[in-house]
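seq:
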Amino acid sequence: MKKLNLNLDLAFNLLFPLFISFVISMTLPNFTTYYNSLVTLVRVPPIIFPIVWTILYIMMGFVGYKLSQNNDEKGEKLYYAQLLINFLWTPVFFGLKSPVFGLILIALLLVLVIWLFFYVKSKYGNFAYILLPYIIWLLFATFLNFSIAILN
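struct:
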């Protein structure tokens, strides 16, 4: 029975971020049309975003699973706080068409994920490096959001 619980916990942690992001994307207007209407310093092909985010959400899921398996309440609070801000960014940026408020959210998200990285590093060592691609992507996404906020 313990193996079943472990498998359900792993499945939940891997699928939850993917499911929520899918639901958000299905409830908002066409992302591509709005994105293509924006002036930006860098134009990323829209197909890149769902590919990158799928990979990042799976990697984040492993972090959530590790925190859950260790009954790490502080780590889980930090993990779910960053996940909430992550989920809010899309409706704000695309739904409300607010690059400025999106920039505020993504900057907060970046701070939370860096905090999460150092927290996980202090408790679980090198496992924290699973968050580095997320941090690197967020640095790029923050730059992209900043350029959009300034130029539009």
